Amino acid sequence: MANKDNSFYQEFEVFSKRTDTAPMQYQFSLLAPNEEIALVMAQENFMRRESVADLWVVNRSHIRKMTQEEKLSLHRLDNKDYRNAKGYGYLKKKWRHYEQEMLDEKEILSWGGKKSSHE
């Protein structure tokens, strides 16, 4: 089975997983006459360098990318900033500022009715 331009070779994309629980990762492209030869070539070229738990070989013509119109649907609405997790890193600084302003020595000593030694 030849690809669209009637050449003997087809383009394949190779993906692998290092372990059963690892994510699938893209590795490289290769040219082969069919899927079976592409898998053998991927094994020969890739597995001799490192061990893998799984190997996928996908004919590039079977990969569908989004159209420009479909990509427009990926843009977020302007009023959805609350969905972007920014973390809580600012809280430590905010708490420190709060402690410095609210719990100074004069205020703490005022709770017990004592005067500060600086007065």
Automatic annotation (TrEMBL):
Question: Entry's InterPro entries?
Answer: PaaB, PaaB_sf
- Identify the domain of life: Bacteria
Q: What protein is this chain from?
A: 1,2-phenylacetyl-CoA epoxidase subunit B
Q: What is the lineage of its organism?
A: Bacteria, Bacillati, Bacillota, Bacilli, Bacillales
